[in-house]
Structure to design on (187 residues):
């Protein structure tokens, strides 16, 4: 069985629902549909999540200066890198952990942290904490819920609920952004 794990989204499909895949993997292990040790699943997810974000950070760190120092670039301006640096100075530690649980953001945050020059040791430490909470925690929640008879008997409905729960943070963020834009426009 292939273990669904976090991938560095810059390199491979940032749109993949990592939370749903990990939760479902834990659920399938609990119901006996898939025969993998839950500890092995969590360990593999942790290693892949940690390595993926380390790779993203290093890509941002190495490629960022060259990309952001090009004159006349609309998308990659040096001022954006400076703003990102200020953000990581203030919120960097907790953002590295929390971004794990927000689809799409989890893909781009490590690269942005690298571009912004977040201290490598700080990023690595909080990346490890986030990878542990996400890579081990999400499959364990799926495993725990999969041990309930109702969940196993209603796997199809459970899968639909998982996908909906994974999409809710994106929807809330889009709604919040629209409201903020409307408020600025009215003001």
């Amino acid at each position: 069985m292939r273990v669904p794990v976090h991938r560095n989204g810059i390199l491979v499909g940032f749109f993949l629902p990592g939370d749903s895949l990990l939760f479902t993997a834990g659920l399938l292990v609990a119901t006996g549909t898939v025969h993998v040790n839950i500890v092995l699943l969590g360990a593999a997810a942790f290693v892949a999540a940690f390595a993926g974000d380390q790779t993203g950070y290093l890509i941002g760190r190495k490629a960022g200066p060259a990309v952001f120092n090009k004159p006349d670039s609309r998308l990659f301006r040096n001022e954006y890198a400076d703003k990102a640096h200020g953000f990581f100075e203030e919120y960097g530690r907790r953002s590295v952990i929390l971004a794990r649980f927000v689809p799409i953001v989890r893909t781009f945050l490590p690269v942005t942290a690298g571009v912004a020059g977040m201290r490598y040791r700080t990023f690595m430490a909080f990346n490890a904490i986030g990878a542990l909470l996400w890579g081990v925690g999400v499959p364990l929640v799926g495993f725990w819920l999969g041990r309930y008879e109702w969940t196993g008997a209603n796997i199809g409905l459970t899968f639909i609920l998982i996908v909906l729960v994974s999409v809710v943070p994106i929807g809330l963020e889009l709604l919040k952004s629209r409201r903020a834009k409307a408020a600025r426009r009215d003001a």
Q: What stands out?
A: The mean pLDDT is 78. The two ends are 55 Å apart (CA to CA). The chain has one domain: 18-186. DSSP finds eight helices and no strands in the chain.
